[in-house]
Amino acid sequence: MRKMMIAAAAAVTAVATPAAAQVGNSQGLVAVQIQNVDILNNFLNDTQIAALNNIGLPITVQAPISVAANVCGTTVNALGALRKEGNATCNATSGSAALADVVQRQKLKQNK
Hints:
Blueprint: H1 2-27, E1 29-34, H2 46-55, E2 59-64, H3 65-72, H4 76-85, E3 89-91, H5 97-106
Parallel strand pairs: 1-3
Antiparallel strand pairs: 1-2
Helix pairs in contact: 3-4
């Protein structure tokens, strides 16, 4: 009986995991251009901001579409339509913790 319960639990986990992974991948990525690193002042420390300034502007990162919509002042639907056309790029007009995390991983090569 115990083996059957363990097998059933493993089967449920195996079925649920791919579905969760597919949801995250279905949104896709959008190229977000950062023209002014000051928008990240509240989310990164002074050393990180200085390092970004040394990289040169604009800084482009690949962010999840929901993050891009938030910092670019647009909607997920609008960016999704651009993505279908192959032109999913936007300019960040505000910062966020999520954008700062993306910048840390992609440009500063830092993991939290």
